[in-house]
Amino acid sequence: MTDVPLAVLDLAPVAAGTSAGAALRHTTELARRTEELGFGRFWVAEHHNMPAIASSAPAVLIAHLAAHTRTIRLGSGGVMLPNHAPLVVAEQFGTLTALHPGRIDLGIGRAPGTDQMTALALRRTRQGLSAEDFPRELADLMNYFTGTDPGPIVATPGRGDLPAVWLLGSSGFSAQLAGLLGLPFSFAHHFSAANTLPALALYRQHFRPSEWLSEPYAMVAVNVVCAETDERAEWLAGPAGLSFLKLRAGRPEPLVSPEEAAAYPYTDLEREFVRERRRGQAMGSPETVYRQLTQLQERTGADEMMLTTMVYDIADRVRSFELVAERFGLSGGAGRG
């Protein structure tokens, strides 16, 4: 898969004993380094009411990252449309596009990315929070950018300042919609591996050429932890597995150290949950990760792969991407190390 572009998804993970400010500074450091390494895009994801994740305001963070990088594409993976009025999203990403033309992606999701109480606090009304409202709100958003159906409200910036729009998904709904609208589609394999192949099949089956794309373009997001050895990668992955376990149990916490994760008294059921979470992802030495990512790309036919790495220490996070870049022969991949 040497010709398949590689991209980065970052959640600005908050390590225990540190702050959200430190997490955001580390994300900035990672964006700069992955640009040097030759990765093509760097996306940040919208999450709320999660102590382990600081990327709650993608548009603000993207503006900061754009000011500290030069060429890498920056975007949202994604903006959760049910949380926002379409006009606000159009103005925010229209502003980003006007300031940084040709560099901004707007990945849009239909889930709130949080619990219902927090979603209601964000939206301040239940209107628009249903999945059934998503196609209409997406159409409103696109119209603010394109002005295809002019109305009394003009998004400025927004109209004429169109970012590259993607639909994101972890099931078949957004896959079909992305296909019908002729938009690129990014699938969240990193937390919905069982649905990857069915969703991509639906996307390609329903694809209609559009002014945006003449043929389907699918990206697959995958968890990656790369280290010098398989054993060290497994060690570094411990905190993310425990964090997800606690999140699913309704007890979200900042990312603990690998030592604390290894000492956690897992039940047999909890260990199986973490093992299942890692299935289908890429974890190990550069050779192991290369083999796993190549196999995943061959199974999915992905046109692009987006890698997300959730480890405790920023040095290990940066090193993981350096090792991947070197093994895949990215420009800059033989640099620092």
Automatic annotation (TrEMBL):
Keywords: Oxidoreductase. Its EC number is 1.-.-.-. CDD domains: Flavin_utilizing_monoxygenases (cd00347). It is an enzyme of class 1 (oxidoreductase). Signal peptide: none annotated. Residues 7-302 form the Luciferase-like domain. Coiled coil: none annotated. GO terms for molecular function: oxidoreductase activity. It comes from the Bacteria. InterPro entries: Bact_Lucif_Oxidored, CmoO-like, Luciferase-like_dom, Luciferase-like_sf. It holds the Pfam family Bac_luciferase. To bacterial alkanal monooxygenase alpha and beta chains. This is MsnO8 family LLM class oxidoreductase.
